[in-house]
Specification:
Elements (H helix, E strand, L loop, with lengths): L9 E5 L3 H13 L3 E5 L2 H10 L4 E5 L1 E2 L2 E2 H11 L5 E5 L4 H10 L3 E4 L4 H11 L19 H15 L4 E4 L6 H10 L8 E5 L8 H6 L16 H4 L4 E5 L6 H13 L1 E2 L8 E2 L3 E6 L3 H6 L5 H7 L2 E4 L10 H12 L6 E2 L1 H8 L6 H15 L5 E2 L1 H4 L5 H4 L11 H19 L4 H8 L3 H11 L3
Parallel strand pairs: 1-2, 1-3, 3-6, 6-7, 8-13, 8-14, 9-10, 10-13, 15-16
Antiparallel strand pairs: 4-5, 11-12
């Protein structure tokens, strides 16, 4: 049954329970939405292939299959339709499976109308193409960084929990901010929490807030991180550092979408999108019993792996110059060729954060405020570099040896592609810009 009205967003509702269908249609129509119903997977897929919808709500259990088939059909066909699933109470596995398949959120039965309205409002605000606000962007043209930015754009359209993994200084918080800024919650708060920096005895009150008089020093009611992030995104950095007792409380808050302040007897609903991150191997902590498996599955719905700087060396000149422009504060400064070479061959255990510290030091120590040389950077070898065995023969000085290897590889690629630099760059697995820079540095004509 469809009630098409001009200009109304269209919602496809899929369920075989007449009572629930009526409830959903009545609620949605009062929100000014046009609803179309389907009672099975085949009917829903047929409608999706023929008509345009702005939102899809589907039950998990249907007479001829389950809601995951609808989610997968929308994903495989590339349809621009956000889809949410309705799961039986306590079916956490189904909810997680739906989110991994491409659903942006889920509702548990019995459906709470307040939660339904909030979900629909968020879904209909998701832009067709996520746009990241200026100032919150990851630089780089390497394949690794292009892949990360592409995934961030897709994740911004979703409401699923995201787990970001990567080394310290690789830009995990910046990636989280990009996901938030590019999505429907961008006008609402982004609250970043360093889980390892909060004393264990204060964690519950910091996360959930507290009531006046609930403990010594509680002189007034106070909201916690969840309330502060309501409507927006809560970013849990170094989530692996949460103690087990707090993991239990966090899991309940995620499952129920409600929190209870310390000293209160009432729970209050919260609507937050969770993004978590750590530099540790969370799977190993689950195996050792240091991190709860059920919480892991709640947080680890979609993983975003951040590349380290060693995996994107061709981006170092671009990133370094952008950082230098920011640090120089109006006074134009540039990196000498020898400084760029030194940076490209440095291992960067601290990634982009370390690069920024190195450049700030180099700018401060440079005799000429407009030029930074390799000597100004004061790069020290890492333990891996200093402990490496020294080869014999023609493998030192190391820089000369590396330059010869690089020159040989580039020359061979150019010969194979009849000196087509674009094709040679593709063969080497680097960008054309990186290819041109390396040819200039090595004097290859």
């Amino acid at each position: 049954m469809s009630r098409k009205l001009r200009g109304q967003p269209r919602v496809l509702v899929i369920d075989d329970e007449p009572d629930l269908l009526e409830l959903l249609e009545l609620t949605l129509s009062r929100m000014g939405l046009d609803t179309t119903r389907a009672e099975c997977v085949a009917e829903a897929i047929g409608l999706l292939d023929k008509e345009a919808f702005d939102l899809c709500l589907t039950d998990m259990r249907l007479p001829d299959g389950d809601g995951l088939e609808v989610v997968q059909h929308i994903t495989e066909k590339g349809l621009d339709v956000p889809v949410a699933v309705i799961t039986a109470f306590g079916s956490a596995e189904n909810a997680v499976a739906a989110l991994k398949a491409g659903a942006f959120d889920y509702l548990s039965k019995p459906v709470a109308l307040e939660q339904l309205r909030a979900l629909v409002k968020q879904a209909l605000k998701v832009p067709e193409k996520a746009e990241v606000r200026s100032g919150h962007t990851l630089l780089g043209e390497s394949p690794a960084m292009l892949q990360v930015r592409g995934l961030i754009e897709r994740l911004a359209k979703s409401q699923a929990p995201v787990f970001i993994n990567g080394e310290s200084g690789s830009g995990k918080e910046l990636a989280a901010r990009m996901i938030h800024s590019g999505g429907a919650r961008s006008e609402h708060p982004f609250i970043a929490v360093n889980c390892g920096a909060i004393p264990e005895n204060l964690m519950e009150s910091e996360f959930f807030g507290y009531r006046k008089g609930s403990f010594t020093g509680a002189e007034a009611d106070r909201d916690g991180f969840f309330q502060a992030a309501n409507g927006g995104t809560l970013f849990l950095d170094e989530v692996a550092d949460l103690p087990l007792a707090m993991q239990v409380k966090l899991l309940r808050a995620i499952q129920e979408k409600k929190v209870r302040k310390v000293g209160s007897t009432q729970e209050e609903p919260v609507d937050v999108r969770l993004i978590s991150a750590t530099h540790k191997r969370l799977t190993a902590l689950v195996e050792s019993g240091e991190f709860r498996q059920d919480l892991f599955y709640r947080l680890h719905v979609i993983e975003l792996a951040m590349p380290n700087l060693r995996e994107m060396r061709e981006d170092i000149p671009l990133i370094a110059n952008a950082i230098l422009a920011k640090l120089s504060r109006g006074t134009p400064a540039r990196l000498d060729a020898d400084a760029l070479v030194a940076l490209e061959h440095y291992s960067f255990p601290g990634n982009v954060r370390e690069l920024e510290n190195i450049l700030e030091r180099g700018l401060s120590l440079a005799a000429d405020p407009e030029r930074v040389s390799a000597a100004d950077l004061h790069l020290t070898p890492t333990s891996d570099e200093s402990e490496a065995p020294v080869a014999s023969g023609d493998k030192w000085p190391l820089q000369d040896y590396l330059d010869r290897v690089e020159r040989s590889a580039i020359t061979e690629a150019l010969e194979k592609t009849r000196y087509n630099r674009t094709a040679a760059a593709k063969l080497l697995g680097i960008t054309f810009r990186a290819m041109r820079y390396r040819m200039e540095r090595l004097g290859i004509k």
